[in-house]
Amino acid sequence: MSKLRFGIVGTGGIARHHAIALKALADDADLVACADILPGRAQQFAAEFGISRAYESARSMLDAGGLDVICVCTPHPQHAEPLILAAERGIHGVAEKPLTATLADADRVLEAVHKHGTKLSMISQRRWLPAAQRIRRAIDEGKLGDKIILGESFCEMWRGPEYYARDAWRGRWDTEGGGVLMNQSPHNIDFLLYYMGPAEEIFGYWANINHPYVEIEDNAVAVIRFKSGGLGILKGTVSMNPPRRIHGVTLVGSNGATVSLDCWDFATAQNDIWTVPGDEEKLDEWRAHDRSFGTGELPNFHAYQLRDVIDAIRTNREPAVTGEDGRRVVAIIQGVYESGRTGRPVKL
After folding, report:
1. Fewest CB within a 10 Å sphere: which of 53, 154, 235, 256?
2. How far apart, in whole angstroms, are the C-alpha atoms of residue 125 and residue 114?
3. Is 140 found in the same domain as 231?
């Protein structure tokens, strides 16, 4: 089959992960265009990655045609418009996490995708970590009972002044859309939903406690009730220095078995806790495998997810991470914000 032609919207730091991934998937993907509103930045990115066309807006790139898929790598509040414009032109969309900054934008994107019959995926590349896949298989095989009854989702990171000074959009509600919940926590929120299913109600607090040089929250906590009857805990901080577990979950099954996914850095993760009966002797072997695996045969985990998106388009199935999955993450984030503002639980 012919290669799928990709374009990247927004050529900042995260766009490099997409470009590196697409170059590794060269048998199936062609990275042919990029766009950025900052003068000259798209041209510089195009020169670095051998991209033939560079534009100063997503609309001009999309209007030029010759694309099958776009990857949106802009700041969070700017995700919706390129995805909608792409869907209107029959072009599939991949959005960096989170899908959008607001539920209203998420709904507009999903409406456009459903209307025009295109595919949509939110980047949740850490689902392809071997330790993350191991938990999914254990749940599917019933090794944790008939459901997960308790889950903890955590993001324990540090961000200092130099991080927020890196880009003009960081640290502001209008240009970043939020803080630790919006930027750092979508991965571990997605893990919790991936394993426990849809959430029903949330109550939370958020605050800026020790980052006075930015507007957004640096700490957040919440409790969640799931439709399954299970309960969850959400914790996010960029005040832990040095960082500990940057993303992860701990899950308790209805049979008492407990498992964890601990991402100690961006490339690897381990199952630090695994009390599934009959599997105890495998844990040391799994940990050794996961430490040595790195990113396997591909340069990063974005490549694993983009490979899945390519296959989903070719076989006309839903991607492993859907647009609806992305909306659920946004609902959790916005639910914590609303609960913190009102002091009340929020129905999801």
Report:
1. 256
2. 23
3. yes
Classify 118 as helix, strand or coil: coil
47 with 163, same domain?
Answer: no
pTM for the complete prediction?
A: 0.97
- Among the candidates 88, 118, 148, a domain finishes at 118
Q: For residue 303, tell me if it sits in a domain.
A: no
Of 118, 142, 161, which residue constitutes the final position of a domain? 118
Q: Total domain count for the chain?
A: 2
pLDDT tens-digit map of 319-341: 999 999 999 999 999 999 999 99
CA distance 309 to 315: 10
- Coil, strand or helix: which one is 253? strand
Instruction: Using the CB atoms, write b or e for 271-309: b if 16+ within 10 Å.
Output: bbbbebeebeeebeebeeebeeeebeebebbbbbbbbbb
Range of the domain at 99: 4-118
Quick check: 44 and 51 in contact, CB under 8 A?
no
For residue range 165-174, what is the model confidence (pLDDT) as tens digits? 999 999 999 9
If asked whether residues 159 and 289 sit together in one domain, one would say yes
Per-residue pLDDT, 268: 79
CA-CA distance, 7 to 45, in Å (whole number)? 12
Read off the DSSP letter of residue 26. Answer: T
| Residue-by-residue DSSP string for 161-207 | HHHHHSSTTTT-HHHH--SIIIIISHHHHHHHHHHH--EEEEEEEEE
**CB-based contacts of 218-223 (< 8 A; 24+ apart in sequence):** 218/159, 218/179, 218/180, 219/180, 220/179, 220/180, 220/181, 220/185, 220/336, 220/340, 222/332, 222/335, 222/336, 222/339
Residues in the chain predicted with pLDDT less than 70, given as ranges, are: 1, 266
